[in-house]
Amino acid sequence: MTLPTHNKALEIFEEVCLETDKLDIEKGKIPQTSRKHFLAVAECAKKIAKNCKNLDPEKAYICGLLHDCGQPSENRDCNKFHGLVGYHKMMEMGFDEVARTCLTHSFPEYDFKPERFSYTHSEMVLCRNLINNISYNDYDLLIQYSDMLCKGGLVTTLKDRIIYIMNTYKISIKDARIRYRIMLKIKKHFDKLCGQDTYCLLGIKND
Ligand SMILES: [Fe+2]
Question: Ligand 1 centre from 203 Cα, in Å?
């Protein structure tokens, strides 16, 4: 199992941000949004990991920083699933520990049905098959949770984030409910591991 060094992770992060910023500018969007999101997820994962005896905060930070490293490809071609692009990119570089969180962060529902996603069916089937070969570990859950808490660069509640996802990505109420229920379970898991409410730990105000 290998992980990039901190400096190597920052180097990859900068390359990805350059691409996402360029694509945002081309599409008339505000640049830096992706950069803020990647950093927020990394910081969030690190803060939680610092409070869990079984987790390494540095590994959590690196996985958080690079979890969306496949994003530029999806921004260029919306049929490309960023999780799978990121997975292949990190595997090719030999960073399998980051590769798996690139893949798993999009699937809090472990036994998801490929047809429920709007990406190419063959890509979703491939994701399904890759995930079938692993059991989620605490890093997979940590990046799913941290990603879910970060709306862009803003750390917010799961409820707020799920409403945002419903409105932005047009997922059904049924899917939103399933995702919300799973995320609450993951929150409870980390609340227990940290011995405190992770919302308090992260300074999130619960409404
Ligand atoms: Fe993300």
Answer: 20
- Span 119-160, pLDDT tens digits: 999 999 999 999 999 999 999 999 999 999 999 899 999 999
Ligand 1 centroid, distance to 122 Cα (angstroms): 22
For residue 41, how far is the Cα from the chain centroid? Answer: 7
Token pair 């049924």: residue = 174
The pTM is what? 0.95
Domain ranges of the chain: 6-153
Give the distance (Å) from ligand 1 centre to CA of residue 96. 18
Distance CA 143, CA 68 (A): 10
Fold of 6-153: Hypothetical protein af1432 (1.10.3210)
